[in-house]
Automatic annotation (TrEMBL):
It comes from the Bacteria. This is Ribosomal RNA small subunit methyltransferase I. Its main location: cytoplasm. One of its GO terms (cellular component) is cytoplasm. Belongs to the methyltransferase superfamily. RsmI family. SUPFAM superfamilies: Tetrapyrrole methylase. One of its GO terms (molecular function) is rRNA (cytosine-2'-O-)-methyltransferase activity. The keyword S-adenosyl-L-methionine applies. Catalyzes the 2'-O-methylation of the ribose of cytidine 1402 (C1402) in 16S rRNA. It catalyses: cytidine(1402) in 16S rRNA + S-adenosyl-L-methionine = 2'-O-methylcytidine(1402) in 16S rRNA + S-adenosyl-L-homocysteine + H(+). Pfam families: TP_methylase. InterPro entries: 4pyrrol_Mease, 4pyrrol_Methylase_sf, 4pyrrole_Mease_sub1, 4pyrrole_Mease_sub2, rRNA_ssu_MeTfrase_I, SAM_MeTrfase_RsmI_CS. Keywords: Cytoplasm, Methyltransferase, rRNA processing, S-adenosyl-L-methionine, Transferase.
Length: 224
């Protein structure tokens, strides 16, 4: 029986890929990619010709079983996402869980993930933190924010550019305008930026300067 490799890919700067990641992607029989067009550019850059198959949030429920059977029959598989580590706010959890349930070895390589540099860059306490990923869009959002308003650990969120101002407004409303916030965007890329301040200050900044790119928001916990 073969195994499943979970392979992190760069979040922006292609130089951040590891030698081991390149080795695995060249040696496996099949690469599962969140978007084969995006991953195709990465593989072409590093002259990797391994066959790819689409594996994303819209089809993973239907394809997990067939992938399990492929691995059981001897196919070695690598899972990658568009950027960063698969299964962290990206497809991958269902497949890795199914592999474990079927006695298939899962080998997750260390590598890039956006929230780690964002957390370190924030200047907020990082000895204890909670990763929240994306907040609920509608249903459950208010309930989640009310619960998190009492959280004493540093909190980590992912957000899209067009929703950032709305989310920062909610942080002001539920956490208080003076809560410390750090927003990192376009990490490792040419226009990388980290803006730190109170929730109100950061909200005002991005209200006047609409953001672009991938965004990580770090929020200080409630002070006891």
């Amino acid at each position: 029986m073969s195994k499943l490799y979970i392979v992190p890919t760069p979040i922006g700067n292609l130089k951040d890929i590891t030698l081991r990641a390149l080795e695995v992607l060249k040696d496996v029989d099949l690469i599962l990619a969140e978007d084969t067009r995006t991953s195709g550019k990465l593989l072409k850059h590093f002259e990797i010709s391994t066959h790819m198959q689409s594996h994303h949030m819209h089809n993973e429920h239907k394809t997990v079983e067939s992938i399990i059977q492929k691995i059981k029959s001897g196919t070695t598989v690598a899972l990658i996402s568009d950027a960063g580590t698969p299964a962290i706010s990206d497809p991958g959890f269902l497949l890795s869980r199914a592999c474990i349930e079927n006695g298939i070895e899962v080998d997750c390589l260390p590598g890039a993930t956006a929230f780690v540099p964002a957390l370190v860059n924030s200047g907020l306490p990082n000895d204890k933190f909670v990763f929240e990923g994306f907040l609920p869009v509608k249903k459950g959002r208010q309930t989640r924010l009310l619960l998190l308003a009492e959280e004493t650990r540093t909190m980590i969120f992912y957000e899209s550019p067009h929703k950032l101002v709305k989310t920062l407004g909610h942080f002001c409303e539920y956490f208080g305008e003076d809560r410390q916030v750090s927003v990192s965007r376009e990490l490792t890329k040419l226009f990388e930026e980290t803006i730190r301040g109170t929730a109100k200050e950061v909200l005002e900044y991005y209200t006047n300067k609409p953001p672009k790119g991938e965004i990580v928001v770090i929020v200080g916990g409630k002070v006891k």
